[in-house]
Fold this protein.
Amino acid sequence: MQRIGRDIYVETGYRGGNVGFVVTGEGVIMIDTPLLPLEARQWRDEIARVTDQEVIYIINTDYHPDCVIGNHVFGAPVIAHELVWTKMKSYRDSFRHRLIDAFRSEPEVAAGLKGLRIVTPQITLTDRMVLHKGNKELRLIHVGGHTPASIIVHIPGDGVLFAGDVVVNGVHPLMGEANSKEWLNALTYIRRPWVKAEVIVPGEGEICDKEATEKLSRYIRRLRARIRGMYATGHSRGEAIAAIAEMIDFFPTTDDEEGGEARQRLRANAGQVYEEMKTSGV
């Protein structure tokens, strides 16, 4: 766990993605929750070691499992974009079974997920929301891009921004539901000088600053340009995906397992951008 500001803490070591919390003086506000039940309980205990204040809100930055599955451990109302509520209403038994099946090689994790209770947002926003608690102001801003529901959480008084998966640091982004043009706009917004954020908490990877958004923007722009060119010259989706294989080195991987996941993400990203080009007509 790292302290990154006045009473602001982050954990980057959990499976799935980064999580954080803010101690406000009137209660704890969490940003996303751990994917694995054991890690969610560990995070609850870590919070209790820092403060005796209760968790009063959970903010989910999107509806993906690595942001929302741990909600039930903390017993606090959830705040998210209204599309998170819409999506999570469909998380029924089939969703739970798919999640368990994804961990079939880890029986202990799979067993812990069998009693999973889905906790949907009780408070939703469409564009922006501001929370004032104690000495903290948290600005929730809908930016989209990574998913239609993606939000960022800006704490201007501390120069901290929780970006969710709108920013990832050192890894290939996950673009399976993305609008790549909207994502570029979101990254441009984060870089605006009036967004006071010296510290950015990405959805994946280590704590960074605005410079990390530049590399991610270059990645998305290059992917869009390559796929646009392939689509415009009549190449198939499969041919377009094969043509961007060298982009695997854009974010270096450390071992075969991570390399395999990166290649899978890159292919999915290229396929999604190809579908965007079909829809928009280039």
Notes: Residues 27 and 53 are 5 Å apart (CA to CA). The longest helix spans residues 256-280. Residues 217-280 form one domain. The chain has two domains: 2-207, 217-280.
